[in-house]
Design a protein that fits this description.
The protein has 3 domains: 14-119, CBS-domain (Roll), CATH 3.10.580; 151-220, Signal transduction histidine kinase, dimerisation/phosphotransfer (DHp) domain (Helix Hairpins); 228-383, Heat Shock Protein 90 (2-Layer Sandwich). It is elongated. The protein contains 11 helices and 15 strands. The relative contact order is 0.08. It is of the alpha+beta class.
């Protein structure tokens, strides 16, 4: 690992022919210089240790005796030499057993056998501090990730509590009302309208559960596509028929631009319909009363089938566009969230599209509406020729 490499100070080495007087001057000029390495063609062959070297030359006859002699006469010919890849843990073991003096006197660090620098207790301290800093950063990142996961779980539980209780309360309440009416001898025909409410609440509840199960399968890579052929505009027509009533509740104009483009889509048709339902449902949900939503279809130059859902709603900021693709999150999540939903609509759209090898695009600006597009790869575009299919 990069952070476990041994840190060293790049002290300029001397050759074996260098004179002791030259090294003496270097020690005199640099009080922090612990040792000077001796190399031959890049290979370390010895080490001149500050204290030992200066003591020898500080003697009355030391300097006149050694000043003009080669450093090989005073160097340690068997210093501690370690490769930077050794790792600090193994180095500590060596220093604490046979090479304890090297902490103060210095040791040679190599890279691929060639001299790289001098290691000391100071460089080891630097190493320790750097590793501690990296570990702290890793712990902070893990803590932030755990906190984010905790917030997501809490938000999910809060959302699910509301989303599941609402239809369940409706089912239970309407059922109890019908039973009470019957027990009092009133005609049951008068309460048949509540049966439809029970059915609608149950259907809504089933949809929530199915979304959660689908997403769980996708996350576990256990989702299987059941593929078939269909004219892509037909999927749009079916979705519009299903969503028209929902749009009318808010007086939203639901329009299409879906001419026959002469090809068919090879995909899981139920999933494709669910993708468009999710996109249209989102557009209706977040658009104001009287707005418009358009679903369009086109064949790109690369023979890719592309669906687009365009609305003139409030739009989203760049930050919100990132958040809405996170599972169980809504753009207006929190205590003030105005719209119901699991927060799985767009994450499911993205996951379903990618399961087909396609791409999901979201383009939005605040107060300027939203454009959501899904694009299937050309391998799923099929030419119609007398009901014989040939992949483009």
């Amino acid at each position: 690992m990069q952070d476990n490499k041994i840190i060293s100070t790049p002290v300029k080495p001397v050759s074996q022919d260098a004179l002791c007087g030259v090294v003496f001057e270097r020690f005199q000029l640099d009080s922090e210089l612990v040792a000077v390495p001796v190399t031959d063609k890049g290979l370390p062959i010895g080490l001149l240790k500050r204290t030992e070297f200066l003591v020898r030359l500080a003697d009355r006859f030391g300097r006149p005796l050694y000043e003009n002699r080669p450093v090989t006469e005073l160097m340690d010919r068997n210093p501690l030499v370690v490769d930077e890849e050794l790792g600090t843990d193994d180095l500590y073991d060596s220093l604490m057993s046979d090479w304890r003096p090297a902490l103060q006197e210095g040791f040679i660090v190599t890279e691929g056998g060639l001299y790289k620098g001098i290691g000391t207790s100071y460089t080891l301290l630097q190493q320790h501090m750097r590793r501690a800093e990296l570990r702290m950063k890793a712990l902070d990142a893990a803590r932030l990730e755990a906190e984010a996961a905790s917030r997501t779980r809490s938000q999910f539980l809060a959302n699910m509590s509301h989303e599941l209780r609402t239809p369940l309360n409706a089912v239970i309440g309407f059922a109890e009302f019908i039973l009470a009416e019957r027990s009092q001898g009133r005609p049951v025909d008068d309460v048949w309208s509540y049966v439809a409410d029970i059915r609608d609440s149950g259907t809504h509840l089933l949809g929530i559960i199915n979304s959660i199960l689908d997403f769980s399968k996708l996350e576990a890579n256990a989702f299987t596509l059941r593929e078939d052929y269909e004219a892509p505009q037909e999927i749009i027509h079916r979705v519009v028929r299903m969503m028209t009533a929902e749009a009318r509740k808010k007086n939203i104009r639901l329009s299409t631009d879906a001419e026959d483009i002469g090809v068919e889509l090879y995909a899981d048709l139920q999933v494709c319909k669910q993708i468009l339902i999710n996109l249209v449902s989102n557009a209706i949900k977040f658009s104001p009363v009287g707005a418009s939503v358009e679903i369009s279809l086109k064949l790109t130059r690369e023979n890719e089938i592309e669906y687009t859902v365009l609305d003139d709603g409030p739009g989203m900021s760049a930050e919100e566009q990132v958040r809405v693709l996170e599972p169980f999150v809504q753009a207006d999540a929190g205590l003030s969230r105005r719209h119901e939903g699991t927060g799985l609509g767009l994450p499911l759209v993205k996951a379903f599209t990618e399961a087909h090898g396609g791409q999901f695009y979201l383009d939005s600006q605040q107060y300027q509406g939203t454009r959501a597009a899904i694009r299937f790869p050309a391998s799923r575009t099929v030419v119609r020729e007398d009901r014989d299919y040939a992949f483009i």
